[in-house]
Design brief:
By secondary structure, the protein is mainly α. Helices cover 74% and strands 5% of the residues. The chain contains ten helices and three strands. It has a three-stranded antiparallel sheet. A hairpin with a 3-residue loop joins strand 2 and strand 3. The termini are far apart.
Amino acid sequence: MEKKITVSQRTMSEHAYQIMSDYIFNGTWEPGKSIKIRDTAKLLNTSEMPVREAVRMLVEHGLAIHRPHRGAVVTRLSLQELHDFYKVRILLEAEAARLGAENISSKDLDIMDKYWLELEQAIATGDSLKALNIDSEFLTTLYNSCGNNVLVDQIHSLWNRVQPYKVLWARSSLQSGLFSWKNKPKILKAAKQHDGELASQITVESLSDAVKSMEKMITD
């Protein structure tokens, strides 16, 4: 029977995740490093259960992967993979933004407004993962309006593949004070004007800026 995680254990797990993800982002844990549950629990002065849950969260967010007989290891990020993934993101999302803005309903515009308010709150509290999830819902609302389910499915599949890069970008953006979500109200305004070309242009600029930011983080 699967053990239930209590509120206190969840808080401990989230704390462990925060520290472990910091180790990954600041280079203390290099790509390919094996994450040992017992050793990490000793390092963090906690029990093994919250560390196991924190490792699960690292894997879920793409910051670690499971390897046979090695457990979880830190994910390797590469410039080539970054460029390849984001070239495709730009192609797909620019088209989805264009069609979505041209066809979006007033109801979905209200939903985007709600998500933008929630995103501002998450940014204000420095919760990068929550902000990233809200950002995905914001964009999904726009993209779903494009009328092409295959296109939206491909975008979501690609988002799963680039999750480690998105997490890196979101965390670093908030920590540096350079709020990279500044283009979201511009996209929202373009959608309200049903200006597909402008929404597409802003989407390209936003993703291109993200690539430039991540290039520096990966090579530093």
